[in-house]
Design brief:
This protein has a single domain (about 45-185), classed as tt1808, chain A, CATH 3.90.1570.10. It starts with a strand and ends in a 5-residue tail after the last strand. It is of the alpha+beta class and about 190 residues long. The chain has a six-stranded mixed beta sheet, sandwiched between helices. Helix content is about 30%, strand content about 25%. The longest helix has 21 residues, at about 45-65.
Length: about 190
């Protein structure tokens, strides 16, 4: 299974509201929307990737719950970035004051800004260069820290604003300090 990209331009451009309605009408699909007017249909995860992603989300959620400075999100959450794209990272975290500033109606829809922290867990159907570009898009739109986890190569690429990307080879854990103070992801079960 591979990602399917449908170029909607020049025929028409989806508004955020139209894209929301499309997602609501097709809940069985994992959809994203790019600034280039592309509708991106993401394949479902296989068992191993899904299990590893659940572990990642669980660790992030447990830390966020005990830390109480922000909230964690799973891979089915859409974030509408300042550039107009709507993306769904494997896992994300948002500072509590940003979440608290949203109305109840806004909380029920795509989160209307970029998360502070994003993680993409590369699956067999993901293309590395496309996912690297997506990570850079998060940073360019306000993310303060991003991790691209490549299980196959056992590498993590770290993204931060105004810094050169760093690649770690087969670490057993990784710290999100200072953005998520005290959060450390154990990678043993992800590898």
């Amino acid at each position: 299974m591979t990602t399917c990209i449908i170029n909607l331009k020049p025929a028409f451009a989806l508004t955020t509201e139209q894209f929301w309605q499309l997602c609501v009408a097709n809940p069985e699909l994992r959809l994203e929307h790019s600034t280039a007017g592309e509708l991106i249909i993401c394949p479902l995860f296989g068992g191993i990737t899904s299990n590893r992603n659940a572990h990642l989300i669980c660790e992030l959620y447990n830390w966020a719950d005990s830390d109480a400075t922000g909230i964690a999100f799973g891979s089915s959450t859409g974030f509408t970035l300042p550039n107009g794209a709507t993306r769904a990272p494997s896992a994300a975290w948002l500072r509590q004051e940003r979440w608290d500033a949203l109305t109840p109606e806004q909380r029920e829809r795509f989160v209307p800004f970029c998360p502070d922290f994003v993680v993409e867990l590369l699956s067999k159907s993901d293309e590395l260069q496309t996912t690297q570009a997506k990570m850079q898009e998060y940073i360019d739109n306000g993310a303060r820290l991003g991790w691209l986890i490549n299980r196959e190569s056992k590498q993590i690429q770290i993204y931060q604003p105004n810094q050169t990307d760093e690649i770690l080879d087969a670490p057993q854990s990784i710290s999100a300090d200072p953005v998520l103070k005290g959060f450390r992801l154990n990678l043993g079960s992800i590898w």
